[in-house]
Design goal:
alpha+beta; 2 domains; about 35% strand; about 230 residues; 6-stranded antiparallel sheet
């Protein structure tokens, strides 16, 4: 800054119509999120013994297990009055698959550049991405439908699993694509939503949400299944 004093300008000088398009930089967020796996511990003894290490959960994407990457969503943060555009990353404890917390990078207005860490009570069991994937793939009705699409000449591709906080609960959303062996361009065929004690598979997100929140008005052919908690990893 001393060498090039006029090279950087204050954020306040950025035109408003341009500033509204700013979003939390994902590369910086990735580094901060990775550091937080250990540095969320504030007790020196706990930190020294590494008693409360976190990890990035895994998800099933295109038939392979991979770490959940940060994703941008529009949601209302706890205690806030309106929705905002954020970058979110979930965490699970080391050696366990339940969800322990999530980190949000904020992008809107005066909140731009701020981080919010939300931690779940340790005594409360919250499904993590790996457990949700297991619930989906172990359900006999949904897994049978996926197997039917995995016939010769095509395959079903499970997309990125999104964990979306809603008020005091969580909504899990996973797209399901159909891909022909001769073409690499997948087509969205279903959306799978897990909410509380239900698994929904519908033709699109709107139908899935209607089946959950407006079951008496829903006229869709969505598959509604109860959550089977047995044999969860």
């Amino acid at each position: 800054l001393k060498i090039f004093p006029n090279f950087f300008k204050s954020l306040d000088q950025m035109p408003t119509n341009l500033r509204t398009h700013l979003r939390y930089p994902i590369d910086l967020f990735n580094i901060q999120s990775e550091r937080l796996l250990a540095y969320h511990m504030t007790d020196p003894q706990v930190f020294y013994n590494q008693e409360d290490l976190w990890r990035i959960p895994q998800e099933i994407y295109a038939g392979k297990s991979q770490p959940v990457e940060p994703y941008y969503i529009i949601m209302k943060l706890p205690k806030e009055k309106s929705e905002e555009f954020i970058l979110l990353h979930p965490y699970t404890p080391t050696g366990r698959n339940n969800l322990i917390g999530w980190l949000a990078g904020r992008s809107d207005g005066d909140q731009y550049g701020k981080l919010l860490l939300y931690q779940f009570p340790k005594q409360q069991l919250i499904y993590g991405p790996e457990q949700i994937e297991a619930l989906i793939n172990q359900d006999p009705v949904i897994s049978q439908q996926i197997s039917l699409w995995n016939q010769k000449g095509s395959r079903a591709v499970q997309g990125n699993l999104l964990v979306i906080p809603i008020e005091q609960s969580l909504l899990y959303v996973e797209p399901l694509y159909l891909e022909a062996e001769q073409h690499s361009l997948p087509t969205l065929v279903r959306v799978i939503v897990v909410y509380q004690n239900q698994i929904i598979m519908a033709q699109n997100l709107e139908e899935a949400l209607d089946a959950i929140f407006k079951p008496e008005q829903s006229k869709t052919s969505a598959i509604v299944r109860p959550v089977e908690e047995t044999a969860l990893p």
